[in-house]
Amino acid sequence: STLTVQLGERSYPIHIGRGLLHQAGESLKERGIAQKSPLLIVSDENVAGFYLAALESNLQESGYKTVSFVVKPGETSKSLAVFEQVITAAIEGGLDRNSAVIALGGGVVGDLAGFVAASFMRGIKFVQVPTTILAHDSSVGGKVGINHPLAKNMIGAFHQPELVLYDVDTLSTLPPREVSAGLAEMIKHGLIWDADFAQWCREHATDLLALDAATLEYGLEKGCSIKAEVVSRDERENDLRAILNLGHTIGHAIEAIAGYGEFLHGEAISIGMVGSALLGVKLGADPSLVNETKEMLSSLRLPTSLPSHLDTDRLLEAMMHDKKFKEGSITFVVPRSIGRVEVVKDISVSYIREVIEQLK
Ligand code: ADP
Ligand code: ZN
What we know:
It is globular and about 60 Å long. The chain contains 14 helices and 12 strands. The longest helix has 22 residues, at about 215-235. It has helices at about 25-30, 45-60, 80-90, 105-120, 135-140, 175-195, 195-205, 205-210, 215-235, 250-260, 265-280, 290-300, 310-320, 350-360; strands at about 1-5, 10-15, 40-45, 65-70, 100-105, 125-130, 145-150, 150-160, 165, 325, 330-335, 340-350. The mean pLDDT is about 95. The strands form 3 sheets. It has a 7-stranded mixed β-sheet with strand order 1-2-9-6-5-3-4, sandwiched between helices. By secondary structure, it is of the alpha/beta class. The protein binds adenosine-5'-diphosphate (ADP) and zinc ion. Zinc ion (ZN) binds next to α11.
């Protein structure tokens, strides 16, 4: 299936389906990507091992010249040093203004390659070939960037892709933990916007976890389209985009203090979404919201409670570093019911402390 994302003046297609890696050249030609200018493919070692040769040979058969640059897997590759190496590869590979950068990988590769595309010669075309479920989230919205040693995602840009090719066959090699973590962002889109979709995720949990192609296709399409709807409305309804942060205030704090690796992003926001439900009930939502949220998340094999070794004070402190926290109160995305959330601006720290204790 194909979804068209319309943001302001610009629009681009997200193709979702099987075997798309083997039709990549045709899809690039359809989008008018020049054949004379070399393409730069950026990937990581894990993904490259499975899919780089297939992508390169398909593009070359379609008449494209390609240069590939493979980085180490993981967040450490979103650095200024690796950014410089990729730019070097682009210059040495002879890329010009009509070239495109192709991201073959998950969120890390997408952010890095996208930032290279945004900044090389003041911006060239960008194509995303996401290979994780989580990356459906970053394939809409255009945020690209890298980390600074002092702060995550501190250096970046908005750069919309020309095209997204989501080949669900590439998801078959994802480790099970990465599958569940990606499904956390998928169900988040249901929890903030579409109760039926959240229920659908629960009902189809077995097929989603088993990476059934048709089920994944529907889930990814729905997840992308909800995100696109929220992002495009945000231009009119100020701050609507904030609802996409459901579970992220607590989730980011968990990631920060647990030491990277103990929790995947999706696992941390899963716990954060349970925390938000607990807060929702404190603020008047039906008490059944908490168990319903937990059941949905655990059906996707996601964690719903905090290990007790995570210190409450340290978590609160980590949240205070989050820019949304000021003078004893914090802005929070709070669910009212499944599928409906509100952004509440002045939640007191003592409420959050209670929620964290309840999460343990
Ligand atoms: P995200 O932020 O989308 O979860 P990452 O880029 O951090 O993505 O990727 C998560 C991990 O999964 C990395 O170790 C990456 O190498 C690996 N990975 C990504 N896609 C695949 C795939 N299709 N098959 C196997 N491993 C993959
Ligand atoms: Zn997220």
